[in-house]
Design a protein that fits this description.
By secondary structure, the protein is of the alpha+beta class. 20% of the residues lie in helices and 36% in strands. It is built from two helices and five strands. The protein has a five-stranded antiparallel β-sheet with strand order 2-1-3-4-5, covered by helices on one side. The longest helix is centred in the middle third of the chain and has 16 residues.
Amino acid sequence: MIELRNCIIGNFKSLDKFKLDFSKFICLIGLNSAGKSTILLAIDFISQQMKGDITWWLKERNWEAKELKSQLTKNRLMMISVGFTYHQEFYVWTFGFNTISLKCTDEEIRYIPNLNNIDK
């Protein structure tokens, strides 16, 4: 069984260096325009990246790729990291996504042998 532990989102819309720790129950509370929907969109984007069809995902929302990029930084590369356990072992999946080419530029899954090293 796979259990999501956390994700770190960099350069996605209004999120940069944003960390979300997953638990059995997550409640997003905040004022209008605080970023609640953006967090959900980022999670949806991550799931679509796993499927590999970002073009369709953008088309369904009537978006352009440039709308994904954060306006907080000039960097065109999104960096996303997802920590998860699989059979009680901890792994981190990290990928970079270029908003110009609409492609994953690099991807890595690392095994972390000691759960105390989750944030490293």
